[in-house]
Predict the structure.
Amino acid sequence: MKYAAFALLSAAFILFPAGAQNSSGLPPIWEETNLQPRPAPTPEDISMVLIGPDTTKGIIYDVYVIGEHTQSYTARRWITPFEINRYETSYRLWYEVRMWAEANGYVFNNPGQQGSSGRRDHAPTETGKFQPVTNISWYDAIVWCNAYSQKNGRIPCYTYNGEVLKDSSNTALCDLAECNWDANGYRLPTEAEWEYAARRTASGYQRGDLASGAVNEEGEIVSPITDAQMAWYDGNTNGTKTVGTAGTVFGEKVAPGSGNANALGLFDMSGNVLEYCWDWYSSYQELSPGTFSTGPEFGAQRVSRGGSWSPYTGFLYCGDRYAYDPNESYNYMGFRFVTSR
């Protein structure tokens, strides 16, 4: 027993000689600098959710009918897994990335503003930083996605002739943007991905003529769920609110995610601000089974989805769609981002 104790003590002196102790008297292995670095906490306005078919069970695609119950023309769409932010893009995040981007060669035609009533190009305020960014164009959104990708060490999705798009004022090149759907960078959702995210439930799909989340987890309407419980729209507000607070009384005073989410845990898929999608606007076309839908190759207007607080965008149901010139920007238009993997 004495020999064992002596051996342990000797080993301690070999491993940690007296001169190697720090000011606290502890061996350096206990110094915080010797520990693995702790990852920075994820901001509360960023929460990526993996959605789509369960490929672990051998399911390759989820299939649904886009525009069902709302559009004159409908078509089947095949969905593969992707990640989507729970929240519309906040002004805090927009501004942080834009500041980095402009210091690294990016150009934005519109600086954006904090919600519907914020001042353009001003730093986010503590009370309003989680308002959605507005007054940006579709061009600004795709260039920002490229900047956010580069800032996070991901592969930007949007290019033209192999060059990463970095200037939203160069609208001619942005109109010809090509998207690398296999890249791991951030991008806008396709229209098919957006409606899937708005309508998917645990057992299928909710109707397209309802606000996103206006059903229970099984997709059933067991009791009336009003638009006001799921969306900030012209019936219950005259401006934007903190992202993810629809269904609360004081939406502008609480944190993201304190409101009511849809079946996938996504907030504001109906209301608050219109959300840009990738697709050029056109009637839906049937596709070959398994085809990934990205919309027409060319067009004049881009799709926006989800409705907003503004009376100009009163159609806020899952299957409703809008068409805007990609150069337009209003205080009721914003976006959320996705990644292919």
User: Anything to note?
Assistant: Residues 2-15 form the longest helix (14 residues). Residues 1-35 have pLDDT under 50 and may be disordered. Residues 92 and 129 are 5 Å apart (CA to CA). The chain is about 15% helix and 15% strand.
